[in-house]
Amino acid sequence: MADDRKYTGRHHISIDRRERVLITGIVEVLSFDDETIMCETEMGALILRGRNLHVNRLNLDDGELEVDGEIDNIGYEDDMMSGRGKSSLLSKIFK
């Protein structure tokens, strides 16, 4: 991730009935499968967990991600917010 990116202040999360999530301020999707989606936002790393997760739409130019499925949990990874880097996040997940 480049340190020269500009913060636009457009990071929002909208959840509709725990079945659809729209996230703005997406910088990069680090990984995804049908149970976990890890992405880098303008405010830090964000992890979505659930079942039958499907990336409906991803537009990195506009920083938007739309996911359908059964959403169980959405949370930020503190290590990414403190600037420790992606390896810290990935090492915790794949332990």
What secondary-structure arrangement, pairings included, does this model have?
Layout: E1 13-16, E2 20-24, E3 26-32, E4 36-41, E5 44-59, E6 64-77, H1 78-81, H2 86-93
Antiparallel strand pairs: 1-2, 2-6, 3-4, 4-5, 5-6
What does this 3D model show about the protein?
The chain is mainly beta. It has one domain: Immunoglobulin-like, CATH 2.60.40. Helices cover 13% and strands 55% of the residues. The protein contains 2 helices and 6 strands. It has helices at residues 78-81, 86-93, and strands spanning 13-16, 20-24, 26-32, 36-41, 44-59, 64-77. It is globular. The two termini are 23 Å apart. The relative contact order is 0.22. Residues 80-84 have low confidence and may be disordered.
